[in-house]
Design a protein that fits this description.
Length: 349
């Protein structure tokens, strides 16, 4: 089974081909081409939707060609063509979706509409042998939620952020500290040389009986700590210490919120399952270590995709498309793009 996947929901233009046998839960990546737009958006300190959409238009055809060539395939060899149809920046989503629809129509292949978040949710099954059900911590620039993943299209939301997503908090912290875009990797890099205990930062929502998150107060506390420093005190070491303290606070919040979610998950689904992390923030090595310890404390297996599959890419969309296609879940060519599309709204009857 061969599926081409196209991803254009934000600032990566991506296409990939994945394959799997009918009896396989995991798959093989035959190609995975990703063109980052970081240099285009860096001068603005964040993603500019119009610039992103134009870049997708300029590069989409060549990225698809490269994905097929690297996989040594032609369109006629594919079983289906999948694309992100939401959520995301609507201009970019339209570029990838319409490209995929045109290819499907021209080659007489089934089209599979993929929720971008489901791509992240199922990535661990592409790289690892992860059986349903599992607990998912989905963390990225725009999303922060914990879900019970019972199957393809079957998600129950346990908790989500009531304000900022954790990736957004990383980016805003970086901006407050004068670090270059993208903020998350630069905060992680600076934190490696910092003292995480120098500055006292809050742990929002820790100890609450639910599974929700909040990062707005943590971001505000970082700003207040910076404002307390004199010009002479705002040196590289202070910056590193704030980054380390911020990252430690996020890790403590993750550990507490996931512990609560794991207790609920085990009560509902039993023992022997996995805690899976997905999304761009899942590439952070310090946070992976925290989550590994948290999972082991609850006698659960911890699974994180390879770092290159945590950020947006075509392979995750191709794989989600393959998972849906082999269950007969194809889409009409008149399906619309969705800027907002909650993952727990995908319930399959």
């Amino acid at each position: 089974m061969l599926v081409l996947g196209i991803e254009t929901s934000c600032d990566e233009t991506a296409a990939a081909v994945v394959s799997a046998k009918d009896d396989q839960s995991s798959g093989e990546i035959l190609s995975n081409i990703v063109l980052s737009q970081l240099d285009d958006h860096r001068p603005y300190g964040g993603v500019v939707p119009e610039i992103a959409a134009r870049s997708h238009l300029d590069h989409m055809d060549s990225i698809v060609d490269r994905a097929l060539n690297e996989a040594n395939l032609e369109l006629k060899d594919l079983d289906a063509i999948a694309a992100t149809t939401g959520p995301g920046l609507i201009g970019g989503v339209m570029v990838g979706m319409m490209t995929a629809k045109a290819l499907a129509l021209a080659a007489n292949k089934p089209f599979v509409s993929v929720n971008h978040l489901e791509g992240h949710a199922l990535t661990a099954r592409l790289s690892e042998d992860v059986a349903f059900p599992y607990l998912l911590l989905l963390v990225s620039g725009g999303h922060c939620q914990i879900l019970c993943v019972r199957g393809v299209g079957d998600y129950e939301l346990y908790g989500s952020t009531i304000d900022d997503a954790v990736g957004e908090a990383f980016d805003k912290t970086a901006k407050l500290l004068g670090l270059e875009y993208p903020g998350g990797p630069n905060v992680e890099k600076a934190a490696m040389n910092g003292d995480p205990y120098r500055f006292k930062l809050p742990r929002p929502m820790v100890g609450r009986p639910d599974c929700d998150f909040s990062f707005s107060g943590l971001k505000t506390a970082v700003r207040q700590q910076i404002e307390k420093l004199s010009e002479d005190e705002r040196d590289a070491q202070a910056l590193a210490d704030i980054c380390a303290g911020f990252q430690l606070a996020v890790g403590d919040v993750f550990a507490d919120r996931c512990r609560r979610a794991m207790e609920r998950f085990r009560a509902e689904c039993g023992e022997g399952h996995a805690l899976v992390v997905g999304g761009g923030v899942a590439a952070n090595k310090a946070l992976r270590a925290v989550l590994t310890d948290a999972a082991e404390a609850q006698n659960m297996r911890f699974v994180a995709p390879p770092v290159k599959l945590c950020t947006d890419n075509g392979a995750m969309i191709a794989w989600a498309g393959l998972e849906r296609f082999r269950r007969g879940l194809t889409s009409d060519l008149n399906v619309a793009a969705k800027p907002r599309w909650p993952l727990d709204s995908l319930k399959i009857d």
